[in-house]
Structures are given as C-alpha cells and as structure tokens.
UniProtKB/TrEMBL annotation:
<dbReference type="InterPro" id="IPR027051">
    <property type="entry name" value="XdhC_Rossmann_dom"/>
</dbReference>
<dbReference type="Pfam" id="PF02625">
    <property type="entry name" value="XdhC_CoxI"/>
</dbReference>
<feature type="domain" description="XdhC Rossmann">
    <location>
        <begin position="164"/>
        <end position="306"/>
    </location>
</feature>
<dbReference type="InterPro" id="IPR003777">
    <property type="entry name" value="XdhC_CoxI"/>
</dbReference>
<dbReference type="InterPro" id="IPR052698">
    <property type="entry name" value="MoCofactor_Util/Proc"/>
</dbReference>
<protein>
    <submittedName>
        <fullName>XdhC family protein</fullName>
    </submittedName>
</protein>
<dbReference type="Pfam" id="PF13478">
    <property type="entry name" value="XdhC_C"/>
</dbReference>
<feature type="domain" description="XdhC- CoxI">
    <location>
        <begin position="15"/>
        <end position="82"/>
    </location>
</feature>
Length: 333
C-alpha cells in the first residue's frame, strides 16, 4: 500500500468523523492506457476538497462538479470514463484509455477508524464492500491479494505503508532518505556515531537510538520493509545485516565496492554462520549501474533498485553495479 492511500483513508476518516459528506473513489478496472493503476483511491469532500488521485486531473474535476450538484448518494455506484475516443480525449485519458471507478458515499467513520488503526498497528487488512447496500466488513489477512470486483462486492487489501531503515547518517543517507520519502516510504535512520547523527538535517525521518542490530530488531522488518547499510564500517553494517537477513524485508543491501562486498559475504558466512540462502538475499554493491560518482547520483541508483525490487521488476544482469563496472573499461576503450 502506498503512503498516499493511507493519507486518503485518514483524510476521509477525519472528514466523516466531523460530520462532513464525502465519497471514496477507487479505480476498479482499466482498459488500454490509464494514468493511475487499479486500486488507486481518491477522497472527495462535499465542498470540493480532494485527497488522492484517480487520473491526471480531468476526471477529478468532473467528480467535484457532479458531487457539488448532488449527483452522488446512496449505495455504491460504478462509473466508467472514456467509453469512446471523444470522451477519453475530453477526460485526458491517454491512447483512448478507459477506467471504471467505484464510488462509496459517506463511508461509516467507525469502520474507517478501525481500518486506519489496524494499518497503524502494522496489520494487513482485507476490506469488502457490498455493492447492494454499501455494507463494509474488515478482516486481517496473511498476504496481499489483488483487488477483485464481482457482482456482489469489491474486495481490496490494505496494508501498512512501505518503510526504509538506513544504517548511517551521512550525506548519502540524507539524499536517499529524501528520495525514499517522496517515493512513499516512511524512513528511519540509525547511527550511534554522534558526529554523524548530530548533524542530521532531513525532516520527517525517525531517528533510532542504540546499535544497528538493536535498531533492526526494534524496526520489525516485514515484507514492506527494506534495510540498507551505508556506514562503510563493518562493525556497524554487519550488525544490521545479521538481523535484517533473518527478517522478511523485501530488500537488504549494503554500500561498498565489489571487493568489500565479497569480504563482507565471507565474514558473514565464516564468522556468523549465515547460511547461503540468507546470503543470497544480500544485495551489494547496491544500486543500478548508471556511472554514479556523487552521493546524490548514488542515491538515485540505489532508490531505483529498491523501487524495481518493490515493484517486482526483473532487472537485467547488465544493470547490476558489479557487472557494469566490469564492462565499463571495455566500453571506454
């Protein structure tokens, strides 16, 4: 679940608790090209206030106008945009795309509060909305499932937001934390070295106290978490990696050269008995090979790899930093 979806739910909850009329729009189907994927959400208040997005803007404008005229009320409604080329062009849908929304009117504030509280507690929730009367049921689930819509109900999985734990509070961490936050990650940084942590300047980032292994344990990495070691100090990075490799984190990586990465793997295997299958999850040298040299460029490289793994993209071997650097001299010759 992206950070914007949690923001949508919280805004909708607050509006409904305050007694305001509001609707929740969810993208349930798309045909052709669509500006937003299935599952994207938008909350719309009676006065036109909007949080979230279901398109590039034109559909939002139409929803605002129709809501202001009282067109929406009652049971959930399915609404389709872009049925023909002219309408697709009118609403800014690319390449004649079509999308279908489900609109829920005045969702129950108690149910929204229950859902948000469960998400804040780190639970993965399945929300089912009956099409007939708009009745909502919530249940905790073990794994994410694709949004489904049948003749009876809409079912969608909502989970805690994506999180990133950075070990090290240097310049690279500051750039990476900034990029991670605007990519929807909640970021935590741990660095017991006060000469680094004392000068941290990125707002919105949680600072974890203690040593890296304790920070990883307190972080409780799950399938929506990544742990990245950036200190270049084996005494700190290895502590974090020992715990992270035993977690469900979808991405575990460490900064360093090819030689340092090989030495790190040897240490973890020989001195800490990390099994081969766990070591296979360790990424390093981290990032995609883009010829990066400076901290901001390296942060772009690392963030791109994290997002690719998060999104299930199979990256070509040539994009790996180790492979790219091996080929670079030949390309330059």
């Amino acid at each position: 679940m992206d950070k914007i979806d949690i923001t949508v739910l919280k805004a909708l909850r607050d509006w409904r608790k305050a007694g305001r009329h509001a609707l929740l729009a969810t993208v349930v189907r798309t045909w052709g090209s669509s500006p937003r994927p299935v599952g994207s959400t938008l909350a719309l208040r009676e006065d036109g206030a909007v949080v979230g997005s279901v398109s590039g803007g034109c559909i939002e404008d139409d929803l605002i106008a129709r809501h202001a005229h009282g067109d929406f009320s009652g049971s959930p409604e399915l609404l389709r945009y872009g049925i023909d080329a002219d309408e697709a062009h009118r609403f800014g849908l690319p390449c004649g795309g079509t999308l279908e929304l489900m609109l829920e009117f005045d969702p129950d504030p108690a149910g929204l509060s229950e859902l948000v509280e469960a998400l804040d507690a780190g639970k993965l929730m399945r929300r089912r909305v009956a099409l007939g009367d708009g009745g909502v049921s919530l249940a905790e689930t073990a794994r994410p499932e694709a949004l489904s819509l049948d003749g009876q109900a809409l079912s969608a999985t909502f989970g805690p937001g994506f999180r990133m734990l950075l070990i090290g509070a240097g310049a690279l961490s500051e750039y990476l934390a900034t990029m991670a936050q605007f990519s929807g990650f909640a970021v935590t940084v741990c660095d017991p070295r006060t000469e680094y942590s004392g000068h941290w300047s990125v707002p919105g980032v949680k600072m974890a106290e203690g040593m890296p292994d304790d920070a990883v344990l307190a972080f409780h990495p799950d399938r929506r978490s990544c742990v990245i070691a950036l200190t270049h100090d084996p005494k700190l990075d290895d502590l974090a990696l020992l715990e992270a490799l035993q977690s469900e984190a979808f991405y575990v990586g460490a900064i360093g050269s090819r030689r340092n990465n090989a030495a790190r793997r040897e240490r973890l295997a020989q001195h800490f008995d990390i099994p081969a299958e766990a070591l296979a999850r360790l990424r390093g040298p981290i990032g995609l090979y883009i010829g990066s040299k400076t901290p901001p460029e390296i942060a772009v490289s690392v963030m791109a790899e994290v997002l690719a793994v998060k999104n299930g993209v199979a990256l070509p071997a040539e994009m790996a930093v180790a492979v790219g650097k091996e080929k670079a001299p030949a390309l330059a010759a």
